[in-house]
Design goal:
This protein is mostly helical. The chain has 22 helices and no strands.
């Protein structure tokens, strides 16, 4: 077997992906659309690449990429946090998924596809890419933001939803028409999920003892073998290889070796994941994009509008303001690996062949547009919410207000101590306080708190305390909260 030419082409494609990835980093693009674009350029149906390369050459490696993507997703899933905050997480994440899922399902019928196709379309448009969302939060340095726990909570619920949804979709796409075989398959799928969740919840110590080893090489072989094994078990049980890998990742993530597994598996996930997205790009055909262009445009518009509404809603139920809702909207609208998994399933199930180009073009647009909007969400919020004041302007206004109030306090205390206060000295100070109060809108304080917690440096409270300490009144009155 001579593989020299195929290895050369594959090596060149990976180097091109590296170069384009470096360029993409400069504008904040994630790696997923880059790999897909490289695969699309090298696709035999496209003809843009001078060397021929068939997706069959890396198809099996791409399966490893899919398994490791879901394995790491389960590994990073914090089951204890989910159980501890289940109520709030289910309300936030559940409402987000419900809005996007229901409209996406209706959208599938609207564009003229059947029930099974609509089910796939709803899944493609309903859930965010956990990988892109997490990476954006880190790269944009937004982990300390007030809305970040809410965003991560939504992705946690989406992960659970993906596990259940893929189990249902795999049964629906199996082609069974009799009711009882479908019920049995669904029962087996849910039993598998419940058993694995139970082991992850209560069997962490036992799992830790079973997989304990000091040798990193053997340890890597162990968890990779378990991921592949349970991927195959999931495929046989009818819940797909992706969910089998997700579940064993969930179980291993409950052990004491979670951090060690993550450190060893993340480079493998990134490498094999690149093959998965590259292979999906190789299966795309640019000539088929024309038949789904209008459908994709409507889907993108639908996703943006729904995410605006859903983002503001989940921000409201979490007690956050409009800017937090905008930040959540632009980050959560990123779509990625789950959409491509569903498209792959639809291809193997023989559904409408337009779903694959639809998913490919939709993910390309959303995964390029999403990070760009996320990087500029503060500016978008400033324009939409008309909060364009700079920090310097806010601080100058606060300083003027503090000085005016300090003067008013001093004059009032002087008057109460019996010292004469000229009317022409008292009036300008009162007017200054009044003007300072009128110069800001009623909701200015909430906007300032929304934009940054350090706008108010405590100067007003300090002035009020000093004025109260200098007062020679026998009994000191409580400080007015306004100051």
């Amino acid at each position: 077997m001579h593989l020299g030419e195929q290895l050369i082409v594959l090596g060149l494609l990976l180097l091109i992906a590296y170069v384009l990835g470096r360029v993409g980093k400069l504008v904040g693009l994630p790696a997923i659309p880059i790999y897909m674009i490289v695969g699309l350029a090298a696709s035999p149906s496209t003809g843009w690449f001078p060397l021929n390369f068939d997706s069959g050459n890396i198809e099996f490696i791409a399966v490893f990429g899919l398994i490791l993507l879901l394995f790491n997703l389960g590994l990073e899933f914090d089951l204890d946090e989910f159980v501890g905050n289940a109520g709030k997480l289910l309300i936030s994440g559940g409402s987000y998924i419900l809005v996007n899922m229901s409209v996406g399902f209706a959208f599938g019928f609207l564009v003229g596809w059947g029930t099974r196709e609509a089910l796939i379309i709803a899944g493609i448009t309903a859930t965010s890419s956990s990988a892109i969302v997490t990476k954006l939060l880190i790269e944009l340095k937004r982990l300390p933001n007030r809305e970040t726990p809410m965003i991560l909570g939504v992705t946690v619920v989406e992960d659970v939803f993906i596990a259940v949804y893929l189990a249902i979709v795999s049964v629906v796409l199996s082609g069974e028409t009799e009711i009882w075989p479908v019920v049995v398959k669904l029962g087996i799928a849910f039993l598998f999920i419940i058993v694995m969740f139970s082991i992850a919840r209560w069997g962490g110590r036992v799992v830790s003892r079973l997989i304990r080893t000091k040798d990193d090489e053997l340890f890597t072989i162990l968890f990779f073998g378990l991921a592949v094994l349970f991927g195959g078990i999931g495929e046989i049980l009818g819940v797909t290889d992706a969910i089998g890998a997700f579940m064993i990742g969930l179980v291993l993530g409950a052990s004491r070796w979670r951090a060690r597994i993550e450190s060893l598996s993340l480079p493998m996930r990134d490498l094999f994941g690149a093959f998965f997205f590259l292979n999906f790009g190789l299966t795309l055909d640019v000539s088929t994009f024309g038949s789904v262009l209008s459908t994709v445009a409507l889907a993108v518009l639908m996703t943006v509008v729904l995410n605006i509404a859903a983002g503001q809603f989940i921000a409201w139920i979490n007690g956050l303001g409009p800017q937090a809702g905008i930040n959540a909207t632009v980050i959560l609208q990123n779509r990625g690996e789950f959409a491509l998994i569903l498209a792959t399933l639809s291809l193997s199930a023989g559904l409408d062949e337009r779903i694959v180009p639809f998913a490919g073009l939709y993910v390309l647009i959303m995964s390029v547009m999403g990070p760009i909007l996320a990087a500029n969400s503060e500016r978008i919020g400033a324009v939409v919410l008309r909060t364009t004041k700079t920090r310097r302007e806010v601080r100058e206004r606060d300083q003027a207000r503090a000085e005016a109030r300090a003067g008013a306090i001093a004059l009032v205390e002087a008057a109460m101590s019996g010292a004469p206060v000229p009317a022409d000295e008292f009036s300008p100070t009162v007017a200054q306080v009044s003007d300072a109060s009128r110069s800001a809108p009623a909701d200015e304080a909430s906007d300032r708190d929304e934009a940054s917690d350090d706008f108010d440096d405590g100067r007003n409270d300090t002035v009020a305390q000093q004025a109260a300490q200098q007062s020679d009144m026998p009994s000191r009155r409580p400080t007015d909260p306004e100051y």
